[in-house]
Write a structure and sequence with these properties.
alpha+beta; 168 residues
């Protein structure tokens, strides 16, 4: 069963999108997709920026303030599979798409990329913190727990057994 972690993005959404959409990591972008935005870094950034600025009233590319961390613009989730799970890149990407829809719903903006560049397959998700209808998605320990449960359920549907212990 994969392990899921989250990274809040306060100021570098464009760089995070470019990183996950790297053709060298995704077999020339074969294993990339998106919901409610494009699966290329420039267009995804512009679409997310439009929704974020409309609902938050803040600038998407605002620098991090001198004090505090500033607003979370997007959330980067990483879902890592063990090499022992022997899944194909196609299966990992199917899991990624099902997981994104189940977890975030059809009303979100998320870019999905399955990376094949390490010794293990892993999926990346960059999620806009605002949905298309203005609901704010907050990343905290409670939501991360629910996201890990959704990951387990989706993976079970694909025949991947849950891990016995989760990482903190």
């Amino acid at each position: 069963m994969p392990y899921v972690k989250s990274i809040p993005i306060h100021a570098t959404v464009n760089r995070s999108l470019a990183y996950i959409l790297n053709p060298d990591k995704t077999e020339d972008l074969v294993y990339t997709t998106s919901l409610n935005c494009m699966a290329n870094a420039k267009d995804a950034y512009l679409a997310m920026k439009t929704i974020y600025e409309h609902y938050s009233g803040e600038k998407f590319n605002a620098p991090i303030p001198l004090e505090g961390k500033g607003s979370v613009k997007a959330i980067h989730y990483i879902q890592s599979f063990s090499p022992d799970e022997n899944i194909t890149p196609e299966e990992a990407h199917q899991i990624a798409k099902a997981f994104a829809r189940k977890t975030f719903g059809d009303n979100c903006q998320v870019v999905i990329a399955t990376h094949l560049d390490k010794g293990h397959l892993h999926n990346h998700y960059i999620l806009n913190t605002y949905t298309l209808d203005g609901k704010k998605f907050n990343d905290n320990q409670t939501t991360l727990k629910h996201i890990r449960e959704y990951s387990d359920r989706v993976c079970l549907a694909f025949g991947i057994q849950p891990i016995l212990e989760s990482k903190g």
